[in-house]
Amino acid sequence: MASQPHSSIPPESFSIISTLRYDPQIPAVASKSHADIYPYPKDSPYYLLPFHRDRLLNAATHFNWAKAIEFLQLDTTQFSQLLDKSISDQSKPWRLRIAVDSQGNCTVDVNPAAPCSPRSLFIPSADIETEAATQLPPWKLYLDTQPTEPSAFTTHKTTVRDEYTSARERVGITSLLDPVEVLVFNPQEEVMEGSITTPYFRRRSHIVDTAGSGSGSGEDGFIWVTPPLSSGGNAGTTRRYALEKGFCVERLVKVDELVDGEECWLSNGVRGFIRAVVVLER
């Protein structure tokens, strides 16, 4: 789709989307090892399934798509049964991209999911962080070279993705398989989000605005923070998970407070939680 003012994009030309992981290992790990930090339903192979339904419904409500809203009045069992029709081999992990248009038509694109440890799908804890540190090197997290204007298409995930595609191109990301991400920021120089992830930064707890949800407190005087939606980023499913389970709190993150080499976390609905390091000096 060619770039054009968001106000002029007709409803019939785009869909609302959510992307999630199907992984047959999730139920066993969720119920046995992480029952206290994983939301209902714990027996579903679809990662954070109700959160994805809610995300789509919130987007349909924002755009006032009556037929899409009607379609998305699905309970967890109905939603799971709908997705099951697209899974050809239930013994393997898959990446599902759910798209719903303004008329309530739903399509599900299925592709092999990138391999990851099942434990990376759960909010980081001390043992998970230790395991993660011994596995793959952290992703590199670059900062975009120009701001992105917040809009309904940054708050809600849709097929209108030109800003994110451009941000990735500006820092040289060529593939979704590359262990590289770009941080987008608004004209006020507030970090919004990553192009395909939610970021989390480690900050001293005494300077964190405690108005955010969740405790996120650390015994060492530090806390994990993620940018508030008021900065313009997406209401992601793993972001909601991290906030509800107290891994982090919301707080403004300004571009000028990022530190070259600082360690952070990223997350999304396909890969879970990913270690990353900020790279400001290329």
TrEMBL record:
Which EC numbers does the record give?
A: 4.1.3.38
Q: Which SUPFAM superfamilies match?
A: D-aminoacid aminotransferase-like PLP-dependent enzymes (SSF56752)
- Keywords assigned by UniProt, alphabetized: Lyase
Q: Where are the transmembrane segments?
A: none
Q: Which domain of life is it from?
A: Eukaryota
Entry keyword Lyase? yes
Q: What class of enzyme is it?
A: lyase
Write down the InterPro entries for this protein, in alphabetical order.
Answer: Aminotrans_IV, Aminotransferase-like, BCAT-like_C, BCAT-like_N
Q: Does the keyword Amino-acid biosynthesis apply?
A: no
What are the recorded GO MF terms, alphabetically? 4-amino-4-deoxychorismate lyase activity
- Protein's name in the database: Secondary metabolism biosynthetic enzyme
| The organism of origin for this protein | Paecilomyces lecythidis
